[in-house]
Amino acid sequence: MLIAGLVLAGIAALIHVYIFYLEAFAWTDRKTLATFGMTAEQAEAMRPMALNQGFYNLFLAIVTAVGIVFTATGSTAVGAALVLAGTGSMAAAALVLVISDPTKRDAALKQGLLPLLAIIAVAIALLL
User: Fold this and answer.
1) Of the N and C termini of the chain, which has fewer Cβ atoms inside 10 Å?
2) Torsional sign, CA 60, 66, 72, 76
3) What percentage of residues in the chain have a pLDDT greater than 70?
4) CB of 27 within 8 A of CB of 47?
């Protein structure tokens, strides 16, 4: 079960790296505008916030990836703590998104479901 949790956490981290790319580098690209439902003018006005948010997503991915490495190399307590911190923050951010704007339910599911499943799998593995 621990391996399944780490795989789910790794995929969640990769998704957050992709979100980082969209928010930090591709924010005003036509495809990104369509993904986030914005005009070019709105994207320009939000660029500093998006850059900040992008790096937030990258840092969550890094914490999760470092936790996976620690766990895989035998430091299970430290690794699991980092994996749970990273994926817990991802899942909590998705919850905040859907609570603050229910029309963003699909986006919240895309960014929050895998981290939630990773949390469940890792927790079960640690309890067994």
Assistant:
1) C
2) negative
3) 100
4) yes
Tell me what pLDDT residue 102 has.
Answer: 95
Alpha-carbon distance 84 to 9, whole Å?
9
Residue that has been written with the tokens 């591709």 in this structure: 26
Query: Full-prediction pTM beyond 0.85?
Result: yes
Closest CA to 92 of 116, 75, 73: 116
- CA–CA gap between residue 16 and residue 126 (Å, rounded): 25
7 burial level (CB within 10 Å; 0-12, 13-18, 19+): middle
| Residue 87: closest CA among 110, 65, 54 | 65
Q: List pLDDT tens digits, range 37-91.
A: 999 999 999 999 999 999 999 999 999 999 999 999 999 999 999 999 999 999 9
